[in-house]
Design a protein that fits this description.
With about 220 residues, the chain is of the alpha/beta class. The chain has two domains: about 140 residues, Rossmann fold; about 60 residues. Helices cover about 45% and strands about 15% of the residues. The chain has a six-stranded parallel sheet with strand order 5-4-1-6-7-8, with helices on both faces. The mean pLDDT is about 95.
């Protein structure tokens, strides 16, 4: 499977961090002076930190957030992560990543979070990753944007013109819809959005990675 790319979302897929991170991003925006915050994050147009910042910033101040505001948000998110309990892995995630690395199978990571908080979550959960194959929403407000960026980075890192298969893993309907738009295979992860994932066409689903055999795909 050396010509297959395993492409992972992070929050809720590899790290058990969704509830904590929603609290963190709310506090981070408050620290940036944003007081009127829409906390219905699951129903955002784009499920990304950059969109949360831009959407709520414009609601409060009537103008678009600057790129410098993204830098500030990245810093404040990382600072606030340290005020919350350590993040743990989704069960079996570390074992899966180690098996893929041992067998020289390409992996990449695409997350709607910002990079500094992502590093804290992955390190806290004990999950190995490479920044060379990590794309975040700091450079793309849409999920399609950073997923395509992650794929391009993986092609460069693994010296591939193309991958025969790209299998995306995610816990949210937004991950599934992104995979569908881009023509990627998809595996749903976790119980939180299982019913919604299946209702929207998810054909492969796992509760966690404890008994997951990547060779079965």
């Amino acid at each position: 499977m050396q010509d297959t790319l395993f492409l992972f979302d992070i929050d809720g897929t590899l790290t058990d961090s969704v509830t904590t991170y929603h609290k963190v991003i709310t506090i981070a925006m408050q620290r940036l002076g944003i007081t009127n915050i829409d906390t219905d994050y699951d129903n955002y147009l784009h499920h990304t930190d950059s969109y949360a910042l831009e959407y709520n910033y414009e609601r409060n101040f009537g103008k678009k957030a600057s790129l410098e505001q993204r830098d500030l948000m990245d810093d404040v998110l990382a600072q606030e992560m340290h005020n919350h309990p350590a993040i743990t892995e989704v069960l079996g995630a570390n074992t899966l990543l180690q098996a893929l690395a041992k067998n020289n199978i390409p992996v990449a990571f695409g997350t709607g979070a910002f990079p500094k908080a992502t590093a804290i979550k992955m390190t806290s959960a004990g999950l190995a990753y490479g920044t060379e194959v990590l794309a975040t929403s700091k450079t793309s407000i849409t999920r399609e944007g950073f997923v395509l960026q992650a794929i391009d980075q993986a092609k460069s890192f693994y010296n591939k013109t193309n991958f025969n298969r790209i299998i995306a893993f995610g816990d949210g309907v937004w991950d599934l819809q992104t995979a569908q738009k881009l023509g990627l295979e998809f595996v749903g992860v976790g119980n939180a959005k299982k019913q919604a994932l299946v209702a929207n066409g998810c054909k492969h689903w796992v509760e966690d990675f404890i008994d997951f055999d990547y060779k079965s795909l």
